[in-house]
Batch of 2 targets.
Target 1
Amino acid sequence: MAGQVTAGSVGEPGTRRLDGTRLVYVAAERSAGGVGAYSEVFADILRRRVADFHEVRHPRPGTDTVTELRARRREIIELVDAANGRPVVVHGEFSGGSVESFWPTAGLERKRPNVLVSATVHDPPGLVWWPGRVAFLGQRKLLNHAVHFPLRPLSRAIERQVVGNRTLFAMSDAGARSLLRAYPDTTVRHAHMPVWSRGEVVSAPDRPKAVGLFGLVYRGKGFEHVERLRSLLPDDIVIRIAGRGTESLPAIDGVEILGGIHDADLPAYFSSIRALVVPYGARSPYGEAFPGSSVVTDAIAHLTPVVCTGHGALGELRTEGGVHVVDDDVRTADETVGELAAAAAELVGSRERLSAMAESLRAMREVREPDEVVETYLDTWARSVCRA
């Protein structure tokens, strides 16, 4: 039903109900950042569940020329036409600045009645935010903003025109609501960001007395607050930082900087901290966004309590017990960091709270188990095919 947010539900197994349907998955390649890493594992599950499954991969956002976008569109059309009239679902991963999956899938369903197009939106409410960011603008940051910032209403109008009445998936309730406000003709489904555990971890209370900051270094991730966080935490609590780009952060006493780590190293990293601090803040002048946090997802996967701001969609995690949320909407940045430090210090020193939050995280992980999340997608696609 267009114009409605619905929660994920599990009906008749989508695997059987998608028999005879071709699924074309359009997504970033593994090396293209967080969305690429997510799509690689998501595709592995789909490959096991859908017999007629095809992938169309693209490089990181802002690298495609118009010619390359057209070539990818032709590749998708060839896969659609090769189905010989059978139902085809084309599903894309849409994220900020990534026209690589946005334009090649535009209008497919309007020319071919056997095609259904859907997308997971990683940075709602914008689908791609910068619909003109081909390689020329991707290489010219200031020019890209000079084009897109004053034309924000036009960008949203373009997104609305392209998406039409498709089904969109969001990874949070806040993100789902923001999509429906921006694209009232769509059907929006809430499907959690899947949680993939990479291995066993030490029980949170038995880990070293340390907190962690984790993730890719860029504006809004809170790495600029490390020095103040260090000054506010007790001296016996170590800060361990890991993630791509962290190796360039300045050296500070009491802060261990590990740099980028591989997925296989995540259990060891999370076993070395009792809690993860997530000091996210506003990072874009384009307006509020509600992205799913892969960093928090990794913490949930490895049963690591989280202390975070309420930025974006993080605030809604407070009801599930494994995350302590510090509201940041009425505080200065310094005040927010002070609250985060106080909450982290209190948590790290309490075996009881660490144990209770770890149990809540175990429940959160079960709800977000990949096969359960993917079933929401399969069920949605199967129902859409039946209606068509």
Target 2
Amino acid sequence: MADDEPTRSARLVDAQAKAARLFTEIEERGLVAPGEGERAVSDRIRDLANELFGTTRHWHKRIVRSGPNTLMPYRENPPDRVIGTDDIVFADFGPIFEEYEADFGRTFVLGGDPVKHRLRDDLPNVFTAGRRFFESDPEITGARLYAEIERLAAAAGWELGCWHAGHLVGEFPHESIEGADMESYITPANDTPMRRTDTAGRRCHWILEIHLVDGEREFGGFYEELLTL
């Protein structure tokens, strides 16, 4: 039997809280460090999720990207890269906790480059402003929210690094988010209201993801978590 909506919401929030703890541990244990390969760091984060929560499954590929690889959107598969001493790195993980999906991304800056630090600090600000815009419009569509995220990025001096700014999330496996199904993404092609029910009659919950890039300096940053809870 499917969970009722209050239970679904609580379990999605709990899954995100576990993901947030995982990322706190990543930073405290210094897993993102110069001289480490991206894949090796990804594997250590996978093992840490298992150590902390018994998590062995992730609903999407595990991503750790550094330097110019941070320009690449999710669907790209750049070659493994060794993290440098003055690098910017982001991690994007989708662990499954008790059959509910989390989707969480954060950016780490090694060294003292002020522009990289500014990018890292701008990411949560753009996220918060985007969430505020979403909450202000009961009829908001994916297209309208994407346009606002794009505007916020430009106002902060960055460009968006991906064709979408988020997607549906829920029980594993959640409703299909295949490339042809634009209604499942926060993207210019999605003119449907984001506040709706899915094909099973459940409330739609969304992830907001912010991928900001500086093409000239060849680096980017990433930040994502739940939008609707």
